[in-house]
Amino acid sequence: MKTMTKGISQSTQDYLKNIYELTEQGASASTNDLATRLGIAPASVTGMVQKLASATPPLVDYRKHQGATLTKEGQRAALEIIRHHRLLETWLVQTLGFSWDEVHEEACRLEHVISEDFETRMAAALGHPTRDPHGELIPGADLQMPDDDSTPLSSLRPPQDATIIRVNAIDPALLRHLDELGLIPGADLSISAHSPFDGNISIKVDDREFVVGPAISNNIFVEIGG
Amino acid sequence: MKTMTKGISQSTQDYLKNIYELTEQGASASTNDLATRLGIAPASVTGMVQKLASATPPLVDYRKHQGATLTKEGQRAALEIIRHHRLLETWLVQTLGFSWDEVHEEACRLEHVISEDFETRMAAALGHPTRDPHGELIPGADLQMPDDDSTPLSSLRPPQDATIIRVNAIDPALLRHLDELGLIPGADLSISAHSPFDGNISIKVDDREFVVGPAISNNIFVEIGG
DNA sequence: AATAATATTTAGGTATGCCTAAATATTCTA
DNA sequence: TAGAATATTTAGGCATACCTAAATATTATT
């Protein structure tokens, strides 16, 4: 009947996960960005981040007006949740036939309540996958995040070829759109044109050719060479 | 990021589920029994039950010192959770190899967070089962609880034969014990003796013979005739 | 039927995690 | 570099769901 949070509340887990994701590319996580991602008021984030910073052990480093970063402890907890989330997405797609645009929300709810035993069994049943259905890396049982050497699609220029590795998107409508275009992990593509001013690129996938803007191409990551 | 409770909190769901189970055999659910099952103080139960009774729509009928029963609405919600719980137990056993003593706790946490979509897919993948790994009946998608025509093992007398249909137990240690004895749903048994004063019966299962007391035999339900 | 034992309720309090409004700090712009 | 715009924090509140201690009601005993 408990909530299986190993003493870390569900709300805290959400904070840590989002701080992890916001700080992945270097900077610290701002109050506002966190508030937006969590769907709560900035003032509430300030209070909560202060609490996380003065917990024992502290889960985040925080100085007023400077945003938050994760401590070692906080990072451990974040990676645990991210591992849960990504294994669950994989699991839902592979065993229950969910599509990749449907699993995010479900995994967000389940990630907080599954046991370590569940996690272990799921990983084994899936053959210890290293990427989820969006191509996102799954931290290992040791909570190490593997390296990702992929490149943003937006950085390619004609006539480069590439294979899609990872699609960084949550919005179901966008994911369905990308699915229709064939822009999914594993897809091979080639760049046929690039517009320098608007950043649009023309790509060919499955013999279909179309143009994508930076809003999309910045969030698709590829391995160069088809 | 929400908790998928259709406006009914997780705590409320636990109350309703437990009231359902306590009132299944007729009487109303007392404050104390609920407190014991939920692991909280009786005073807290009083407060919560009062709240459930004055919700709109009311989820329980309640009069001071008289215990609580479910309203139609409350029963609907309870059956929804029980359906989740029992499908999940079945799912965990069949797809992740959990044993029947390990699934209760896990299902108690998951039951509150899965979507209707998840429920539907799980039911379909399992072939719309009507009983969970303990033999407990699973309410249908229409939230009708099927009839159970089984008989308590404790009511049998030599030389009756029977097949185990349902084992009403949660305690993992007890469930492992029963598993070792072969007292699991589907097992055929025959009654070889009955002690009138202590209620013990001797039963033979898988060519092994042993004695079980009423604490066990009252919670094993059978279909008479092997 | 009075008293004892048990069950339940009331009263007052706590922690969590959110809110709004107002104050303050930082960053941008001219 | 002053003022405007933006971001953040403080202060004061609220709902949920739990707690303990004390009061009261019900049930059992003699």
Automatic annotation (TrEMBL), chains A, B:
Matching PROSITE patterns, A to Z? HTH_DTXR (PS50944)
Give the UniProt subcellular location, in the record's own words: Cytoplasm
- Residues in HTH dtxR-type domain copies: 8-71
- Record-level GO cellular component terms: cytoplasm
The molecule here is called Manganese transport regulator
Region Disordered: list its residue ranges. 130-158
The regions listed as transmembrane in this protein's record are none
